[in-house]
């Protein structure tokens, strides 16, 4: 541990003394089963975080995603945001963590929403991804406050919903309503579980699309009288496998994506369905419709127009060769790659704090998948935004998910030193 002042030393010591309290907060959060889909217990979890923020001196408000179709009476989308004013209005350092978790799934040997502590780890769905991160940022700032220190700028903390399905009712909603925006926000740390010893600068892009091929129905005993939509889809997927995928493998990004295999552009066929539903009785028919959902991950070096265009060109080629090849494409979601500047103040301070707490030089990485950073940077125009948090990326969405308590406490220290140095 390398602290640069007596104040920093006091704060770090206080975090050690607060360990039980931080762990208990994570346990309590895990016991609120904020499962998404469908978005269970959001108001309860927002209230729980909000009351802790109020106890810790924040002005707290709840932001419901009014007007969005997913904000329903049975599953309201409620976010919480707190602001702790300091000696000056700027800078504003905003910590954000999502409190929705993916369903428990099968294969657990512990209670998924029990928050059990065992061998120095907290177990449960959402420990790593990412309720430990929420606890770390809240207690990092609380340790500063309990040490009797006032920061120069303001701290904001938000707990948001729906990150796991795009964040539109969560961070995107806060951004669109001006809660997170460069006009009032200087730095954003998203407390996703990228690992306590790493700083994540950004993520790759995503293009989700649905491709439908259309056929013509006929009796299955005389398929020559119809056009089989599944066969047409097979021709398209054959081209994807033999032409597009090898080309994608040749494209490698300069972004430091982890794991390194994810530095190549990729395409995954996420789902496919065609013909009659296979859940019921089948009658002999030539399939008149087949639909596939594709998940194309693209690099910051690729242009989206080309990403989309090369898929459309393959479909057009097939249609040119085969008059029976009819298709439709529907764009489902596009996320552009984002990356903070590795030399910006925020990255330097977080990396420096990691170095001081853990005595390691943190790799600056990028994430293969996207998270809420896209909304902060592309809609909110805050260019100093990164992800840093405790927990293990590979534990996310797994059975027996856990977070190590020493990682949780070290991340809390890193966040505290970062806040003190940015807002001094
Ligand atoms: Zn997450």
Descriptive account of the structure:
With 424 residues, the chain is an alpha/beta fold. It folds into two domains: 6-203 and 337-422, Zn peptidases (Aminopeptidase, 3-Layer(aba) Sandwich); 205-335, Alpha-Beta Plaits, CATH 3.30.70.360. It is built from ten helices and 16 strands. The strands form four sheets. The chain has a six-stranded mixed sheet, sandwiched between helices. It has a four-stranded antiparallel sheet with strand order 10-11-9-12, with helices on one face. A three-stranded antiparallel sheet has the order 4-5-16. A hairpin with a 2-residue loop joins strand 4 (117-118) and strand 5. Helix 2 (19-30) runs antiparallel to helix 4 (127-146). The protein starts with 5 loop residues before the first helix and ends with a helix. The model has no long low-confidence stretch (mean pLDDT 96). Bound molecules: zinc ion.
Question: Features of this protein?
Answer:
2 domains, Aminopeptidase, alpha/beta, binds zinc ion, 22% strand, Alpha-Beta Plaits, 6-stranded mixed sheet, 424 residues, 16 strands
Set down the secondary structure blueprint:
Elements: H1 6-17, H2 19-30, H3 42-55, E1 59-64, E2 78-84, E3 92-98, E4 117-118, E5 121-123, H4 127-146, E6 154-160, H5 171-176, E7 187-190, E8 199-203, E9 205-214, H6 229-249, E10 266-274, E11 289-298, H7 304-321, E12 326-335, E13 338-339, H8 345-358, E14 364-367, H9 373-379, E15 385-387, E16 402-404, H10 405-422
Helix pairs in contact: 1-4, 1-10, 2-4, 4-10, 6-7, 8-10
Residues 98, 129-130, 163, 192, 371 line the site of zinc ion.
């Amino acid at each position: 541990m390398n602290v640069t002042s007596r104040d920093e030393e006091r704060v770090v010591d206080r975090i050690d003394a607060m360990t039980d309290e931080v762990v208990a907060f994570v346990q309590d959060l895990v016991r609120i089963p904020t499962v998404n889909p469908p978005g269970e217990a959001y108001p309860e979890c927002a209230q729980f975080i909000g009351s802790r923020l109020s106890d810790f001196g924040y002005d707290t408000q709840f932001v419901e995603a009014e007007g969005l179709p997913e904000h329903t009476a049975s599953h309201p989308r409620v976010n919480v945001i707190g602001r702790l004013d300091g000696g000056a209005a700027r800078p504003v350092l905003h910590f954000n963590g999502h409190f929705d978790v993916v369903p428990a799934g099968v294969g657990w040997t512990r209670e998924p929403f029990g928050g059990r502590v065992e061998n120095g780890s907290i177990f449960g769905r959402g420990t790593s991804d990412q309720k430990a991160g929420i606890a770390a940022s809240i207690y990092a700032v609380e340790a500063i406050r309990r040490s009797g220190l006032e920061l120069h700028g303001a701290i904001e903390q938000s707990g948001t919903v729906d990150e796991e399905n795009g964040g539109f009712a969560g961070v995107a909603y806060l951004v669109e309503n001006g809660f997170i925006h460069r006009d009032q926000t200087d730095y954003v740390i998203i407390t996703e579980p990228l690992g306590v010893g790493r700083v994540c600068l950004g993520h790759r892009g995503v293009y989700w699309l649905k491709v439908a091929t259309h056929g013509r129905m006929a009796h299955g005993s005389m398929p020559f009288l119809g056009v089989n939509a599944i066969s047409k889809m097979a021709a398209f997927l054959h081209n994807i496998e033999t032409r597009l995928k090898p080309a994608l493998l040749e494209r490698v990004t300069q972004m430091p994506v982890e794991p390194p295999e994810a530095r190549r552009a990729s395409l995954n066929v996420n789902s496919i369905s065609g013909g009659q539903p296979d859940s019921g009785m089948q009658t002999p028919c030539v399939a008149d419709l087949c639909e596939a959902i594709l998940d194309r991950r693209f690099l910051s070096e690729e242009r989206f127009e080309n990403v989309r265009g090369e898929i459309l060109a393959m479909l057009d080629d097939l249609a040119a060769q085969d008059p029976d090849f009819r298709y439709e494409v529907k764009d489902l979601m596009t996320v552009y790659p984002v990356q903070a500047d590795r030399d910006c103040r925020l990255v330097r301070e977080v990396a420096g704090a990691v170095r001081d707490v853990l005595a390691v030089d943190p790799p600056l990485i990028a994430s293969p998948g996207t998270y809420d950073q896209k909304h902060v940077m592309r809609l909110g125009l805050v260019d100093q935004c990164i992800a840093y948090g405790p927990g293990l990326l590979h534990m996310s969405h797994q059975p027996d998910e856990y977070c190590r308590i020493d990682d949780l406490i070290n991340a809390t220290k890193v966040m505290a030193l970062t806040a003190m140095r940015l807002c001094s």
